[in-house]
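With this grant's support, we have paired protein sequences with backbone structure tokens. One protein thus recorded is set out beneath this paragraph:

_____
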Amino acid sequence: MNPNVYTPYQTADVESKYNLGTLLIRYVRNWPWFMLSILLAQAAAYIYLLYQPLVYNVQASVLIKDERKGISEQSAMKETNIFTQTKLVENEIEILRSYSLMDRVVTNLGLDVQYYRPTRTLKKHIYQESPIRLIVEKPTSQLYMEELKFLFVDSKMVKLNGHMYPVNQSIKTPYGQLRIFVRKPLSSKLKPIFATVSLHNDAVEGYLGNLKIGSTTMLSTVLVMNLQEAVPSRGEAILNQLISEYNKEAVVDKNNQASSTLNFIEDRLALISGELSNVEKEVESYKSTHGITDLSVQAEKFLTTVKDNDLQLNDVNMRLGALADVERYVQSHSGRKGVAPATLGLSEPILTSLLTKAAELELKREDLLKTTSSGSPLIESLDSQLKNTNAAISENIETIRQQLISNRNQLVANNQRMEGMIRTVPGKERALLNITRQQGIKNNLYTYLLQKREETALSAASRVSDSRIVDPAHTTSQPVKPVRMMIFALFSLVGLVIPIGIITAKDMVNDHVLRRADVEEVTQIPIIGEVIKERQVGTESFVFKSRMHSVIGEQIRALRTNLLFLNGDAQKNQVILFTSSISGEGKSFISLNLGASLALVNRKTVIVDMDMRKPKLHKSLHLENKLGLSNYLTGEADIDNLLHPVIGHENYYIITAGSLPLNPSELLSSTHLAELFTKLKERFEYILVDSPPVGLVTDSQLIAPFADATMFLVRHDHTSKKYIKMIDALYKEQRLPNLRIILNGVKEGESHYYSHNYGDYRELKKK
């Protein structure tokens, strides 16, 4: 398709290399829009911050006595505390975050009602400053949907949304049964306040969502509690109340354990007290009946041995009784809330450990029920362990009972043997001794139970929480929200993205050629050169001069060089056809200035305005268009009458279009056109033809057979991409000879080569 020697190099790779640079320069060129967008975004950020309430961080810290992490109780009462248990920090965190605790906090502080005073920009929330407190007794659904406005009439009356109501008493309103409690003296001078009521569950869940609890380090048992609140005093009250409720719950839990043991001891004391009273009455009655005052020394010495044996027998009986009591307690409290009491009178380590284990499991189950449901796997696992432990306790009790019964049988046998020996002792003395012996046993047991009751009561009375407040709730001096710098940065980013999005969207919907790659993606037609768009050109169409130092001047020289290389035979004349897709793509401008450039290198050049529909060349050179091409084609003029020298340029001539004919296409089809080119080739080395757009009329295709090369003008942001496909079709069908493309009107930033490598010419031009 191309018989000529020179084929321009396609710089597709170079273009793709500079795609990012092109995009950046395109954005930089629109910097005023970016500055305006960023300034507007900053103003929007400022306005946004005016309507955002300041949020502060409220913090408190609590020390949990967790033995697992090496912190033990240092209280002087620890030895009397028989209910001490190990606490885990993780469990205490879950308890502090439990719904039940926060529910009591919200209820006690009335946090489901929010009070505020309106300002010019936002609602200023108040808490302790509110002169009233609204107590909701029986709400209606309307209460949660409307804002309540309180106007203070006097010390006893307030106006709620236009209706008068008394204070400090239950009132019926459209919003339900309410009570307006007065905190401070009321007067008509007080500013009105507004209130909104939220659902109790929503308020509890909202505060739980804002509550953050965590330990300071892995080995620390200090819990740090953080709450973000718009009203610092309200946030401090919430954390302090939460800690107070947590401590109360811990004390109540421990008191329940102590109460269970105290009840068991009281039951045993009542039983032993009755038995002791009966024995004492028997002693008193026996002595008064038989007149006994003292035993003989011999009888006392003889009975010492019997007494020791009886003590052992009674100890066995006491242990059997205590064992039976423990067994009845375990069986009666199976599956019920409570903790097994201490094994009073029993020294068996296995039974003691099993009872302790059962108590620990029961307490652990009670703690878990505060945070989990009864059907959870953890509760079921604990129930299974409790069942197995109770079974082990019963089995151990049965084993111990068998051993004690065996010991008792031996002691009874010894007693029977000793009784045979003391038959010599007077019956009165022996009867008295038996009664006195029972009295001593019951008295010792009663004294022991009284001691344990006092220890348990002392431990219960000295109940303190296992936590200690390290730092009460306090508020940071600076708000944590909104972060002004971040807001301004985000809005600035949006302000930066909006112009980028607009420019990108504009490019996406724009169907015009915007860069060299748009042409190279559609067609393989060589691009012979690029001509940028300069602001200094303005409306001038003829700008090329002999000592022109500018980017556009160098680009026209580059076109001239490429055009010279297109001619394989330097002695052969060349006809160059200039056309385009539509009007306004710059073919007249390029052809006129390229002809001036050829004339400056002593190439005799003529430019022919063959656009007889809309001629422009004569206007650019300020010539009259009385006699021209149309007159020659109709035989009204000779070629010598058509040639006009271009003033200021030697070797440069022009043939204007002449008078506008009615049939331009028919004139171009005449034999006079061939004669014209023959005569012009005899006189000029280069004949430049400015023809009409090929996309509108067929004039260019009629002239094409006489041309040696065709320069097709594609203008940046003017030529539609669909016309590139038409050019490619003309190229493949060879309708236009030696077709080349010239990119015209390329904006700075779209042509990397010229905008970056010819900056010195711009500086020289400024000088």
